[in-house]
Design goal:
It is a single chain. This protein has a four-stranded mixed beta sheet, with helices on one face. Strands 5-8-7-6 form a four-stranded mixed beta sheet, with helices on one face. 18% of the residues are buried. The mean pLDDT is 92. It is globular, with a radius of gyration of 16 Å. It is α/β, with parallel strands linked by helices and 134 residues long. The chain contains two helices and eight strands; from the N terminus they run βαββββαβββ.
């Protein structure tokens, strides 16, 4: 019945910074835009994989700072071929890694960063024997 995850959605405080981060810094593709009933930009879609998107809504305000063990969104994870390559790309673009590449408790390689609005992103390179590869 369920085929996969279609998108994850975030309200952003600065769309230009978010589009730069997701498209230029991470190298993802801007797929399309949805306008509201006043013909104004409402949502930007960033393609992660076929039929999988990050949905960015305009109009956010305030500062998002997730609290440790708070109920609700914690992070999202992007599957990558090489955590080391991702880390080098991010650092070369002047971004700070929250966690440098390492092997996590689940034995997969990972590194972490935050987007311009503070959303935590994990980059995961599954180990050959990882349950993620089964």
């Amino acid at each position: 019945m369920i085929k996969g995850i279609a998108h994850t959605a975030f309200v952003t405080g600065n769309m230009d910074k978010s589009l730069q981060f997701y498209c230029e810094d991470l190298g993802l593709e801007h797929a399309f835009q949805i306008k509201n009933d006043k013909d104004e930009p409402w949502i930007e879609y960033i393609k992660v994989a076929p039929r999988q998107y990050i949905e960015l809504f305009y109009g956010g305000s305030g500062v998002y700072e997730p609290q440790k063990q708070e109920i609700g969104p914690h992070h999202f994870c992007l599957l990558v071929d090489s955590v080391d390559d991702v880390a080098e790309r991010l650092k070369s673009r002047g971004l700070h890694l929250d966690t440098e590449p390492k092997r996590g408790v689940g034995q997969n390689r990972q590194c972490w960063v935050r987007d311009p609005d503070g959303n935590r992103i994990e980059f995961l390179e599954p180990d050959e024997d990882s349950p993620h590869n089964r």
